[in-house]
Write a structure and sequence with these properties.
Elements (H helix, E strand, L loop, with lengths): L6 E5 L6 H18 L5 E5 L5 H8 L5 E4 L16 H6 L4 E4 L2 H6 L4 H13 L3 E6 L3 H6 L2 H11 L10 E5 L13 H15 L8 E4 L4 H9 L5 E4 L6 H9 L3
The structure holds 2-phosphoglycolic acid.
The site of 2-phosphoglycolic acid has 13 residues, from β8.
Length: about 250
């Protein structure tokens, strides 16, 4: 069994307005308070507009805060962007980087993500680096090799393993209601850990893509799965907390 603490990350994506987002955060915080000390780590990643109000809501609950992306530069002429230091100002301790939705919609490549990882770690953030294969790669049989390459290229030459979480998110599983078999997830996680070498022993490798109450327990029971990254199902406090509790 792994000694790594399980991590449950909520990726709200572009969902949540001031009232609905705060309600959701309040409900999650209330559940966390009932269970303190938490036997697993919980991180909420709301949209940027909600980071500060959600930070205030989560205070004292043990639930941590993360951004969904950041720029690689500290500051400068980058309209619409947010730096890692700015996320820290907003009480973030985590940031998701290289999510497939950003890779696809904004053409973010591995080299850019590696620069972001370096900047975010320098600012003190834990970086949740997302990797995962397309359906075509899976069908062609080369998924594992492609994912390993993607991970290694998405990391800077020097990184802090203590500030790294890897999220394996098959692109075809995100938002589709489909997931790989647990054995397949487990095999990919082992390959990713192996690719990280000695540093990989302490790095949490979590799974994301259609995680739901019905599959979270089975997925997290696998010793090679150190937690989950939850999208749609994180938008209900009851549902999200039920998933988190499966980490025990
Ligand atoms: P999903 O999203 O849980 O809605 O599939 C996961 C993610 O994109 O991180």
């Amino acid at each position: 069994m792994s000694k790594r603490r399980k991590v449950i990350v909520a990726n709200w994506k572009m969902n949540g307005r001031l009232t609905s987002g705060l309600n959701l955060a309040q409900e999650v915080a209330a559940r966390a308070m009932e269970e303190r000390p938490l036997p697993f780590d919980v991180v909420l990643c709301p949209p940027t507009t909600l980071l500060w109000p959600v930070a205030e809501t989560l205070m004292g609950s043990g639930v941590m805060l993360g951004g969904q992306d950041c720029h690689y530069a500290n500051h400068g002429a980058y309209t619409g962007d947010i730096s890692a230091g700015m996320l820290v100002d907003l009480s973030c301790r985590y940031v998701i980087l290289g999510h497939s939705e950003r890779r696809m919609a904004y053409g973010e490549d591995n080299a850019l993500i590696a620069k972001k990882v370096a900047a975010a770690q320098l600012a003190g953030l834990v970086t949740v680096v997302c990797v995962g294969e397309t359906l075509d790669q899976r069908a062609a049989g080369g998924a594992e090799a492609a994912i390993v390459t993607q991970l290694l290229e998405s990391l800077p030459d020097r990184y802090h393993p203590a500030q790294l979480i890897v999220a394996y998110e098959p692109i075809w599983a995100i938002g589709s209601g489909q997931t790989p078999e647990v054995e397949e997830i487990s095999a990919v996680h082992r390959k990713l850990r192996e690719a990280l070498g000695e540093a990989g022993v302490a790095v949490p490798i979590i799974y994301g893509g259609s995680v739901a109450i019905g599959n979270a327990g089975l997925i997290m029971k696998d010793p090679d799965v150190d937690g989950v990254l939850v999208g749609a199902a994180s938008l209900s406090a009851d549902g999200f907390w039920a998933i988190a509790e499966k980490a025990q």
